[in-house]
């Protein structure tokens, strides 16, 4: 499984597809510097996800993703191409939120449940 942490407000703004190109103008100076570094290194700004493994279990992925937002989106598969950004972190160019297999959130709400109809929305706590 692959996990992406995000604030739900960005889910509502970007649904159904997350793409860093859509939000480039909304970044603070630190995020812009990180974006420039990624563009120099990879030629694009990937969306970051954590990859679950026997040494990096689901609960750890979820806990670490919650540092980046109140909601964690889980995917069973990802679109190609995929970049290995670090030992447990990978990157993709876009994420189709309709392909999520589970949602973990610190603050469940009805709008999130309706948006992801048919996909389990669970408490991250």
Protein described:
Strands 5-6-3-1-4-8-9 form a seven-stranded mixed β-sheet. A two-stranded antiparallel ribbon has the order 2-7. The protein has helices at 8-14, 20-23, 29-42, 58-65, 110-115; strands spanning 2-6, 17-18, 47-51, 71-75, 82-84, 89-92, 95-96, 102-105, 121-123. It has five helices and nine strands, in the order βαβααβαβββββαβ. It has one domain. The mean pLDDT is 88.
Ends apart, CA distance between termini: 19 Å
Order of helices and strands: EHEHHEHEEEEEHE
- Fraction of helical residues: 25-40%
Mean pLDDT, to the nearest integer, reads 88
Choose one word for the global shape: globular
Layout of strands and helices, then pairs:
Elements: E1 2-6, H1 8-14, E2 17-18, H2 20-23, H3 29-42, E3 47-51, H4 58-65, E4 71-75, E5 82-84, E6 89-92, E7 95-96, E8 102-105, H5 110-115, E9 121-123
Parallel strand pairs: 8-9
Antiparallel strand pairs: 1-3, 1-4, 2-7, 3-6, 4-8, 5-6
In short, what is this structure?
This protein is an alpha+beta fold and about 120 residues long. About 30% of the residues lie in helices and about 25% in strands. The protein has a 7-stranded mixed beta sheet with strand order 5-6-3-1-4-8-9.
Spell out the key features of this protein.
globular, 7-stranded mixed β-sheet, 125 residues, 9 strands, two-stranded antiparallel ribbon, alpha+beta
């Amino acid at each position: 499984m692959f996990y992406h942490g995000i604030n739900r407000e960005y889910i509502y703004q970007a649904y159904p597809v997350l793409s860093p190109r859509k939000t480039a103008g909304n970044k603070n100076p630190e995020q812009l510097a990180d974006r420039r570094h990624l563009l120099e290194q990879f030629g694009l700004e990937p969306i970051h996800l954590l990859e679950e493994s026997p040494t990096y279990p689901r609960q750890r992925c979820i806990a670490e993703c919650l540092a980046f937002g109140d909601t964690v989106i889980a995917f069973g598969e990802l679109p190609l191409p995929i970049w290995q950004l670090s030992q447990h972190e990978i990157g993709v160019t876009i994420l189709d939120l309709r392909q999520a297999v589970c949602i973990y959130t610190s603050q469940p709400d009805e709008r999130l449940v309706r948006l992801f109809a048919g996909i389990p929305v669970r408490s991250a706590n």
